[in-house]
Design brief:
Strand order of the largest sheet: 1-2-9-4-7
Order of helices and strands: HHEEEEEEEEEEE
Helix content: 10-25%
Structural class: alpha+beta
Strand content: 35-45%
Number of strands: 11
Radius of gyration: 16 Å
Bound molecules: fe (ii) ion
Number of helices: 2
Shape: globular
Distance between the termini: 36 Å
Length: 189
Amino acid sequence: MEADHYPISELAADVKRVCAQFDDERQILSHVRPLARRAALSKAAWLADRMYSADAEQGFGVHLIHEEPDHTVAIFAVSWLPNRGAPPHNHGTWAVVAGVDGPEKNEFFERADDRTRPGHAELKKVGEKVCGVGDVVALPRGMIHSVWNETAEVTLSLHIYGKHINYTGRSQFDLQTQTETPFVVKMQN
Ligand SMILES: [Fe+2]
């Protein structure tokens, strides 16, 4: 059997078609999920060595590979340094993440406070999933997760968002200090 060839231009066109067809976020997530898996398993069509570079201070590297002029349908390759990760955060939009190279541990959280104190946030862990090659994590808007690379190698995953995450006003959360602050990531390139 020939290897699948599914370049990012085709993935982006398919995601755009799904977003035009469905308003319901659950429908969007269920249709984008298999596309993300297909692209993750077709890395020869799009993955470049430079996408493994990461910001040492941040702990991961964010490489934009597609977005529409209005920042929708944003697709990134994200590399994760060994024993580094991202704190609990939301995205301000739907998110679909597929493992491309190496496993990444996701932990999922829900808000446990009543959201009446600005900047204050209490979280409770509600699950976890190790996202290996070809595995997909689909997150509705508002879902909170953290990501950690527990391995000794750089890992890489493909991230598809309804909108570029630096334009959604999303948040990160500190479990110790119980605070919510803006989460803007540094981009590679
Ligand atoms: Fe995330």
